Amino acid sequence: MLQNREEQLYWFLLAFKSGLSATKVNGIIETWCQQAGRLLPEFFACGPQEWEAICHLDAKAIEKLRAWKDDSAGRPLKAMLRTEQASLEQLARQNIYMVTLLDEDYPRTLKSPFKRHDIPPALFYAGDLRILERPTIAIIGSRHGRESSIAFTLEAARYLAGRGVNIVSGHARGVDAAAYEGARSVEGYTTLVLPQGIHKLSGKQMEELLPGIEAGKILVLSQFHPDAPWLVGRAMERNKVVTGLSQVMIVAESDLKGGTWEGANYALAQKRPVYVRRSASPASIPGNDALIERGARPLDWPEDESVYIDGVLSPVLQEGDVLYYRQKYMLRLSQQLSRLLREEGIYELERDVVDDHA
């Protein structure tokens, strides 16, 4: 995390309070912080002339920033700073932290599949970020999954988590809940990616998660402002993070529209391996069948004979391991290149190297 509290505060303001899109925010980070080597407090202390000259912001973005800086909800910037600093300190007391795009412990795998407008500038989290350094497989599916899909998810999560895999899910009812329960039933690692702010977890939910968080087995992530409520659009954005964190994705049950459908198609577009449950029973699942037609790999699953679980899932586990070690090697290489490029003052090339090889 950023050691400079003032700098972290200004990250929070830029990412969550300025009203600018992720594309604009990430552009500012690249041009102002990386290329110009300047800090964000300086950015807010400057005005439209430097914003345009250094960050190449358009008139609309400049006006939005200027109006927000001059008078946000009737409060001057200094008053806002005090309020938001208190909010961040309260989060820290609850062991909830913010990690930014330029921090060393920001999940580098999130950068590789995304274009600039998709990369979350900052994440809030509770737990140990090193969980993401393990082989990671996402299991996604309908909030109203049929019993066979829930049973499949429980068994798949148990099998994979029992072999050291970090199971990623979107923290919703149905398949997501089963993925979490399956991983925790064997005391495995699991990451929950929230479709709302981390403060929107109820006290009861946090109480249930706390033992696993403290044991280093559960990681909770959110790309949204801590107090942001659930919205359909946020759930869709969350799915991109689920994809970005994972080497492999498994689809338990999908409709022909909705979050699971969009998430699986996004993963296919990013050339991620996507496995889709194909039931042995005559009753097919239209969304699953359609995803297979689009290039997802069928995962034939016996309804009753759990003796075959190892035979069905071991190829998924092996592919996940191969991609994990390949990714780990390339990330280590990109980190070495990044250090060299930073020393030489070359930033555009650094981004291209990471995007091409991560």
CATH topology of the largest domain: Rossmann fold
The biggest sheet, with number of strands, parallel, antiparallel or mixed sense and barrel status, is: 9 strands, mixed
Q: How many helical stretches? A: 14
Structural class by secondary-structure content = alpha/beta
Give the number of domains.
Answer: 3
The level-1 CATH class of the largest domain? Alpha Beta
Euclidean distance between termini CA atoms = 22 Å
Mean pLDDT: 84
CATH architecture call of the largest domain: 3-Layer(aba) Sandwich
Write the layout of secondary structure elements.
Elements: H1 5-17, H2 22-35, H3 40-45, H4 48-55, H5 59-70, H6 77-93, E1 97-100, E2 122-126, E3 136-141, H7 147-161, E4 166-169, H8 175-185, E5 190-193, H9 203-214, E6 218-222, H10 232-245, E7 248-253, H11 259-269, E8 274-279, H12 286-293, E9 297-301, H13 309-344, H14 348-357
Parallel strand pairs: 3-4, 3-7, 4-5, 5-6, 7-8, 8-9
Antiparallel strand pairs: 1-2, 2-6
Structure description:
- This protein has 358 residues and is of the alpha/beta class.
- The chain has three domains: 5-118, no CATH class; 127-321, Rossmann fold, CATH 3.40.50; 330-357, no CATH class.
- Helix content is 52%, strand content 13%.
- The protein contains 14 helices and nine strands.
- It has helices at residues 5-17, 22-35, 40-45, 48-55, 59-70, 77-93, 147-161, 175-185, 203-214, 232-245, 259-269, 286-293, 309-344, 348-357, and strands at 97-100, 122-126, 136-141, 166-169, 190-193, 218-222, 248-253, 274-279, 297-301.
- A nine-stranded mixed sheet has the order 1-2-6-5-4-3-7-8-9, sandwiched between helices.
- β7, α11 and β8 form a beta-alpha-beta unit.
- The two termini are 22 Å apart.
